[in-house]
Amino acid sequence: MSFGSQGLVFSLAIALLATCARNSEARVTLENGLKTMVYLSPKITQHQGSVSNKYYYDIEFPKGHIAIKSFNAEVVDEAGNPVSLQETYLHHWVAVRYYQRIGIKEKIYNGNLGFHRSDVIIARNAGICSHGLTQFFGLGSETRKTSTHVPDPYGIKVGNPLEVPYGYEEKWMLNIHAIDTRDAVDPMGCTECRCNLYNVTIDEYGRPLDPNYVGGLYCCYDETQCKVKDGLESVKRNLYLKYTVKWVDWSDSIVPVKIFIFDVTDTWQNTGIHDCLIEYDVEQSTTGIATNDYTSSRRTSVRFPISGDVVYGVAHQHSGGIGSALYREDGGVICSSKPIYGKGNDVGDEAGYIVGMSTCYPKPGSVKIAQGETLTLESNYSSEKSHTGVMGLFYILVVESSSESNYPVQVYEELKVPIFSWGLAVFGLAICAAVLVAYHRRKRSEDGYLSIAA
To answer: What is the DSSP letter of 273?
Structure first.
């Protein structure tokens, strides 16, 4: 190859790398074996009072047989600036793993069709709810100040080809529920999805709402509108969920953990069925003044399906929440998680909003749960005023065997590769081609979504 031809190829590689830098939001970093990638969701277009609650299939996510070490997210604008909860309330985001039949372009899902007749199969967590709460990861307004780190030597195992059903491939979906409260008549009422503020009498499927249903998810579904002040010009803007995933390549030195999600509305103790209702209301106390106690407590009990050691725990609550705890059968505390409320106007410190939840990281082997043990979940809210559509969820990570002490802690070494001009050209062409394909595929689908029955 002539010197001129070599120069042309090298110049093409540099040009393609520059294009990648302009077009791709995803950046992989590597430090001591820990890989990090920052992604953007498809765009979320909103105006004052609007609600977006869409499901985005086949999102960008790390590939291969890996161990997830953390998954963090926040809402940002088109310039990448964090968006305040006082402007856009992040009701929740969840990331769900699923298997899609290879070669199927249109994603069809029906949970009642059975394993072999579904084009999409939810690869849910280990949790016990009979329906819903299938996510691997998910938070709400507390997302910025809630740790999701999985400590060493543990990891959330995904991408194992032996677990993928024949004829399917593993993918990920995001559900993002965002409420624009700019210029709202009652911003906090909008975040609690009070039906009177949304002027809603039917649910998203056209079914009439129960007259006694005053607020919750059935009133703030996708494309609904919360009441805003009169005489305002509509101002649209595009937002994104920026999510950061950290992971390591899977190895035998990593101890896998199972994800369990409990719901305080679970009806198992009364019905024998894990029917998780997801949300409930808190009535205003009529005795609080006399007793100086405005605590509204709700409890439920569940039977744990495996034996293992807890290595992480955290609760999910809405505004008004004052803490939640998970108890052993003997009354001992497995984990207690309390909300962190904002105190000002800065992003991440919005007054009146839960901006974080405290987490538990027990010493390995110190918090054990026996198979068949009855656990009790308690969720506490302030009843100084009423609250609608609140949640009382609890996440824990469990090592199924107590033998994790036999696993060595993996020591990762930073990858050091000498870079030469030809190596850069060839490597750059290959990487850029992959990134551009992923980027343009995302751009083609960023305005579309499909609903999914979780």
So the answer is: S
